[in-house]
Design brief:
Blueprint: E1 3-8, H1 14-23, E2 28-33, H2 40-53, E3 57-61, H3 66-73, E4 78-83, H4 85-94, H5 99-112, E5 117-122, H6 133-152, E6 155-160, E7 163-166
Length: 168
């Protein structure tokens, strides 16, 4: 069963790659969006992404309760695409959720998913060390979440310049 984590930097092609992989599978397609339209630019971005997906997709907006959504939606004959774990991480931080507990629960849900599951995340730890405590905390949390999900996934792809590199 597909349990795929797609990592990459901003504009690396990871979402496009993940969508193509999902569309190549049989079954209903469910896009689990973690983005929140907090400004005009994000509203436009969300609208473009929805239009790019087309009519075959249904969309669930899940800014916080991702584990519950995966557990409720994962099923044979249904392909879930979660985009993205990095925005989910920032949502959790702003909501002051317990990051360790949320990470553990997510990794468990990924490992136990009863249908194909594809998750997208930014690899934010490749650049310079952030100059403030909040940014460092975010980078570290995102890295821990990526590691936990990668351990639970049976495939991990890293995208750079639109090109996939199989890590696992």
């Amino acid at each position: 069963m597909t349990r795929l984590l797609v990592l990459g930097g901003a504009r690396s092609g990871k979402s496009r790659y993940a969508q193509a992989r999902a569309e190549a599978l049989d079954g209903d397609l469910v896009y689990i969006a973690t983005a929140q339209p907090l400004d005009d630019e994000m509203e436009d971005r969300i609208a473009r992404h929805r239009a790019d997906r087309g009519a075959r997709w249904s969309t669930l907006d899940v800014p916080l309760d991702l584990t519950a959504a995966i557990r409720a939606q994962a099923a044979p004959g249904r392909v879930l695409l979660v985009d993205c774990l990095t925005l989910w991480t920032s949502n959790l931080m702003f909501a002051e959720r317990d990051l360790d507990a949320e990470t553990e629960a997510l990794a468990s849900a990924v490992a136990e998913a009863r249908g194909p599951l594809i998750l997208v995340a930014n690899e934010v730890g490749l650049g310079i060390v952030p100059d403030n405590a909040l940014a460092r905390r975010f980078r570290d949390a995102a890295g821990r979440i990526n590691q936990s999900v990668a351990a639970a996934a049976n495939e991990v792809q890293f995208l750079a310049a639109g090109l996939p590199l199989r890590l696992k």
